[in-house]
User: Fold these one by one.
Assistant:
Number 1:
Amino acid sequence: MSDGALSQDEIDALLSGVDSSAMGGSKGGSKAPAAAAPAAVVNFDKGALEKFFSSVNNALSSNLSALTGTNVTLMGPEVDAMSRDNYLMTLPSMVTVVSANYTSGFPGEHLFIFSEESAKAIASLMTKETDIQLDEMAMSVIGEVVSQMVGTQITALTDKTGNKSIVASSPSAANVPKAAAALPAGDFAVMTYSLDMGDGMTHQIWEVLGSNPATDISHGLSGGSSANAGVGQPNAHAPNMGMPNMGMQMPNMGMGMPGMQMPNMGMGMGMPGMQMPNMGMGMPGMGMPNLGPTNVQPIQFPNLMQPQLGAHESGNIGLIMDVFMEMTVELGRTRKLIKEILGMGEGTIIELDKLAGEPVDILVNHKLIAKGEVVVIDENFGVRVTEIVSPMERFNDMG
């Protein structure tokens, strides 16, 4: 006998809008067979989407490998048209959903979906931590991964379609029950990838495109026009509308300009032989002279030279001779992650980007002016100048 509590399956069904009676109203009742969801209506070219997004895999794999510091391989995708009910049946109970909707170019819904296990594996690889939890920091890491993927895709999509207005919103990640995922309405495109991160497992990533962006992108890839692409761009190749040449002429308008005629305007309005009367303005014999070919000569620019100080400027430099300037000697530099900096303590050794014995940099107000070698003078450190940076190099550094 049922205790009156809803099962997890019934909760998920209610969240997704499915009638829970189809699952059986009580533990003792028999389940009614679930009705098959209607087939999705395909408004986009699945082949065009699959061909394009698979062509970006090498670039995506390289970017993900650089982010994670390990060899990552992305394979696929397989493209399917699905409805919400059909797609929810393929997902695990908990998923990490990252929304990165297209806001212009091909506007509409665009999101990535990971299983909990795949999201944890990616976050763990990025942070170098084990037994990671899908907290706010992990969601931020997953969002950064998706941001890199979307950026690479947009660059390739712009090159392929010529649409330079493609923009996506900043990725927003959340770990939710699958029934709470904000999937597009109606039928949409689902692209299924396989991700190999070298951990002995193959992880699945789903990329979801709403019907509008999927249709517009596939049309753009196949050279067709879309409802949202190229808004406000006039068609430079509009076809001839089939209107005959007007043959319109404007004879002497009586302005005192005898024999002057306006040439055929070719306006194509089908009104031949149109005449304008003489207006009598009294400017006889006016005509336009033949100007002949235009003589075009290139402009010669002087060579860009290093600015030289004149005598007046050289004399004025004496006014600032007693001004103090900050001089520093730089032994070397390095870059560290925030977590590495926070983990530093007494005894930590920081490796610099210079070799032992290599000249150090001498800077004035953070500008390199010379190089030198470290010496010891009466138990104090000093620097012996070994090379003065050329004025041209200093001038180039100012740019």
Note: The two ends are 82 Å apart (CA to CA).
Number 2:
Amino acid sequence: MEVPEKSSALSPERLSREKRDDSIEYMSRGKLIWRRFWRHRLARLGLPVLFALYMMAIFSDFIAPYRPYTRLKGFKDAPPSVIHFGVGENRFQPYVYARKRSFHPKTFREIYTEEEDKKYPIHFFVRGETYEILGLFKLDLHLFGVDEGANITLFGTDSVSRDLFSRTVIGALVSLFVGLGGVAISFIFGCLIGGISGYVGGILDEVIQRIIDLLIAIPTLPLWMVLSAAIPREWPVAHTYFAITIVLSIVGWTGLARVVRGKLLSLRDLDFVVASRLAGGSDLYIITRHLLPNFASHLIVTLTLAIPGMILGETALSFIGIGMQEPGVSWGVLLQDTMNFGALVHQPWKLIPGVFIIVTILMFNFVGDGLRDAADPYSL
């Protein structure tokens, strides 16, 4: 009797089961968080916009056609230049017209009209005013510019004939990075002091918490004003920038310290912490290697959402005149021209730096919301 040979073909049920097994993708926690973050539409918008803003700030001297203190003689409170496009020599060439200044016969306000018989093409990668990169290299290459005899003011000019576009782009360097510096200092203080308070406990915990209560009870804006007023006005711009970063960080760490303390109180008596302590691990080692990584996702979200507060703090201090000062440039300094409501009605382009602030804050909030949803351990 012949025994039938076993078929080498897989049954439909087994084939379907193996296909289902192959479709399973095993991902690490970090990869899972990234995938969930990238599915957040607003966060997906905010991340590239923030990247573009920081790249603009880093290469601001190259992007700006003029230096922030360069005055365009005869163009006080001039409106933004109108960019025209035309086809010439088989290429698409942007250009601007020369502008002529006159005065209104009744209000005596400046009026700028285009002289259509004087056309100036916009060139890219042109030579212009010299600037320094990181204080080491001197360059004179700019992204765009026009020939001598004309000017291009994409955002108009201010009350002393300086190009607002150049000042906005260069001012982003201070406004954007003062947030990073302030948050970095606050993050270190908050994690360290909050970690010691929650892990050690006892009298030290009580002392630290009462100090935090005292700092929280002090109104933030008056405290910033007092500390900023103590900064000598003759200091260089770089020193003033560093001092403002310290000022913004003095009370910025208290909220994070309380969060870290609460997390450590709930984790310090767990088995893996006791095992590390019995193995001879120091308190600092246990805090930094075992406890803090357990809620690192929460710390990242807190860090992201704290940066807008620092940016707004610098803007507020500079706007009321006790933060960055001339010749320093920041978005808060540029908004000082908007204090005059009458001038603002006639020169609305001076609000453009405020638009950059709003966009930056929104993008940080979008990214923070995406990180919070992606790193939520109860939704992973």
Note: DSSP finds 15 helices and four strands in the chain.
Number 3:
Amino acid sequence: MSIDAIFKALADPTRLRTMRLLSAMELSVGELAQVLGQSQPRVSRHVGILCDANLAERRREGSWVFLRATNSGQAGAPVLAALDRLLATWERENADFAQICTDDRRKLTAIRAARDANAEDYFARHASEWDELRALHISDVQVEEQLSTALRDAPLGAVLDIGTGTGRMTELFASDAERIVALDKNLEMLRVARAKLQHLPAAQIELVQGDFTDLPFAAASFDTVLLHQVLHFAHDPAIPLSEAARVTRPGGRIAIVDFASHDHEELRDRHQHARLGYTDSQMHDLMRDAGFAPSEPIALEGVELIVKIWIGERRPLPESHTSKNAPRAAIPAKKANL
């Protein structure tokens, strides 16, 4: 991180405004252009300068590109934190800059409202499908209570929420985690999650588009990995579990919430379930083969479906395997213009 590049990057009113906006929430280039009242090409040029100075990060989701302030956990964190304090101080001390920031945040409110409206529309279109499935098993609240209790005996640390869906697990554990990365393959679900999570600190939550069979993260990146009602979509569950193990630090934990084995064949067609749940023996073998030491499962009986919680601890790799499992370079997170 070059201090010369940082000061050059900040030597422009638009880029100062951009940094204040990104400290509040992640924004697409289109949303940023909307707030700044400038064209997308012009905003993209400013964004490029901030990214070149390592002050901001791009993330692609489909055809959209999202921007966020550079993660404070990266190299140069003290400088980034000091810059954030400097801009906050300048906003307090300079009336003109304060008014500009106030106007920008007013426009952010409209963006938040639009995201909420889009999320509500999505829920309205799919409510009947979800209600049909929920009627078969124990309430989500009871599942969340049991999962929270099961994970309470150790710090969550850095969390990966695989298949975040609406973002509920990320929202549930945000206050106890150091940071959470919420990953989903479906762009529309990510937009729903973004609306649900936009009240949380931008520096703590990151949304990433990605596939659970090829996670875009370096090895041993997370302390806790969650797969909540996700694994039944896997045709070969060994693949996502192997990937989950790769990104989990030794001694870290995996928590899998899914259905016990059942015979509701209609879920294949109506809800695209590839697997009709798992037996404890199947899950034990899958977790063990992936590199986790499973603990006793928790069973939550519902009307027709039993929800199971399986938790496992990541075993240290044998020394002879370290070369084969060396951390690979992190794949740049895919970002998008939502």
Note: The longest strand covers residues 248-259.
Number 4:
Amino acid sequence: MGLDAARSISERLKTEVRKAIIGQDDALDLMLVSLLSDGHILLEGVPGTAKTLLAQAFAKALSLDFGRIQFTPDLMPGDVMGTNLFNFQTNAFTFVEGPIFTQLLLADEINRTPPKTQAALLQAMQERVVTIDGKTHPLGDGFMVIATQNPIEQQGTYPLPEAQLDRFLFKHVLSYPSRDEERSIVRRHGHRTTMPNLDDLGVRATVTLPELMDVRQSIAAVRLSDDIVDYVVDLIRATRENAALDYGASPRAANMLATAARAYAGLAGRDYVIPDDVKFLAVPALRHRIVLAPGAEIEGLSADQVVQQIIDQVAAPR
């Protein structure tokens, strides 16, 4: 399989997801890049912006095992990962898998649960394994987390720690739809008050795991020239030298941005990365990896504005 297969997967997934979702094209593009980059994505938006429906429709279009965890304040790490239970018949402990043992995991409203439970995902997202009572359990191929969260200013939320955020390839902020999109949403879904049934909307699985793994191999071969490597590194290093930031992006961010740029180029049908690929992905790849300085917050600057300033200041290769 080559890059034609990547474009085929993209078109098939978008066709199915758009049976349920109107608009949110940038979110869908970033979810596709995450999928082909073997990464995870965090979707943030106020309630009612279709975060959960988008994730469910995306999962439905994939022939992968799908699991969902509704994060709540009383959720415990064992409820996520699983636990060892004593079997009185065999006089031994038996491991009972938690919902994290799936291929595509929807971590719904992840910032509604305390940090102790949020941290249960750290090892799984980075290493694709879970360690319980000293024993490591692999999660297998295709493991991806799509997490949703409400803005941290809302009541009842726990901000995700920096180490957790750094595991996400992208953080995408869902905006309100345009007026025309909202009219179309009301026309399509205005006869119900509950979540639509994806089967009724005709959303079906079209992409298999073997296809996905083959395309990931093709994406890894997309060419990243020395000039583009320098550009990615210079962007990341500029975040550490910016006076508006207390903390910049990590070396992991540079690797992730480069991997994502390869996937984005592949979805465009190119076997090489161009500076515009990096520019498009830089804000969602970096906005959650930087920490604003107090002075910048007082001035009303946002993380997105600072990242965009850095993009504008760092010279791109020609």
Note: The longest helix spans residues 251-267.
